[in-house]
Q: What sequence folds into this?
């Protein structure tokens, strides 16, 4: 799903949780940040290459909008790092391991991680076999569920209508 929709869904969830379970303000912002992180972390190698290397910032946009199979003129290290960071951040196995380690350490669930989980689960359903299937079981396999691609109008329009309704409901009942 697009990054704005990820933030809006997580934001609505955070507001709802703040009302019902006294989620503190800091955790609410962290939760939204964790929902954005999977699509931002992978851009860091591109950003480093643009700032300190020969890369150009418009390449960030080109990368974000690239179609499946489109080959961008990136150095191999940038290509490999962005690819693996994308997979790490979209894997339920990695998110599960981080959740378990933090839960053992803190002796409770670290709530902001739910933002990350929301991103992983939404992307599994909103990417198709032809449109960057989400590598939910990385590093075991690159296989991804053949869901409905989020960039098609019949997913995007209902999604934003539903978001509008959800935000109206959340803010109205505040
Ligand atoms: Zn994503």
A:
């Amino acid at each position: 799903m697009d990054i704005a929709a990820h933030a809006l869904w997580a934001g609505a969830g955070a507001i709802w949780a703040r009302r019902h379970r006294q989620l503190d303000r800091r955790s609410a912002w962290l939760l939204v940040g964790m929902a954005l992180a999977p699509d931002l972390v992978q851009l860091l190698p591109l950003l480093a290459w643009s700032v300190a290397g020969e890369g150009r910032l418009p390449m960030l946009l080109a990368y974000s909008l690239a179609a499946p199979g489109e080959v961008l003129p990136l150095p191999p290290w940038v290509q490999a790092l962005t690819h693996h960071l994308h997979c790490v951040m979209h894997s339920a196995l990695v998110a599960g391991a981080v959740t378990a380690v933090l839960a053992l350490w803190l002796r409770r669930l670290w709530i902001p991680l739910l933002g990350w989980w929301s991103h992983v689960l939404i992307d599994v359903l909103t990417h198709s076999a032809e449109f960057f299937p989400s590598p939910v079981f990385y590093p075991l396999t690159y296989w991804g569920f053949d869901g409905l691609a989020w960039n098609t109008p019949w997913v995007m329009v209902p999604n934003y209508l539903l978001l509008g309704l959800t935000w109206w409901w959340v803010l109205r009942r505040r």
About this structure: Residues 38-39, 90, 119, 123 surround zinc ion (CB under 6 Å). The radius of gyration is 17 Å. The chain is about 65% helix and 0% strand.
